[in-house]
TrEMBL record:
This is DinB family protein. Gene3D superfamilies: dinb family like domain (1.20.120.450). Transmembrane segments: none annotated. It comes from the Bacteria. Residues 54-198 form the DinB-like domain. Pfam families: DinB_2.
Amino acid sequence: MEVDSPWLLEEDGTFLVNGVDVVPLVDAELDRRFPGRELRRAADPEGLRRAWAALEESWAATVARAGRMPAGTVDRSVDGEWSFAQTLRHLVMATDLWLGRTVLGQERPFHPVGLPDDDDGDGTAAFDGSEFSAEEPSFEAVLEARADRQALVRAYLDGVTAEELAAPRRNPHAPEHEETVLSCLRTVLEEEWEHHRFAVRDLDALG
């Protein structure tokens, strides 16, 4: 049996096998496989800066790996999941949503190459459906947008203070629920690491 779920490691989650909760074991093993992943729990400005630097380093190596694979690899899907290019597009959207719109309050934060989840573009509080391009962008355009959004996060973290991290924000999908700047940034980190895991898994399969 194989279980692959990003929700397995949610706070207060349990997954019992013969009476043993395996969630802490899985979490520790993923931290071992992906150095820097443990920093996603950072709660102060310096810790967040280190967490983002680790993510950028891991993603740079993975993008370089994808670039060394046969032409067209970045557009191939495994078992109906997003391709590598689509994964990067989704992370552009996630940055725009949680940092651009929710933390920075930008009115039009979304880059057109961004890719929302299938259930995100339905007219909810997060999207109106018109922000994103209907055409498949080139991988070069995806990398350019991705680099721009990574730089946006890096620049924000360079200047953020502990007081700013505690500032209230509204969940973009459910405005009645309050977030903080810190919880929004942690959502970005979770998105990054989960989709990095998926990308590595699928590159392994394609290889």
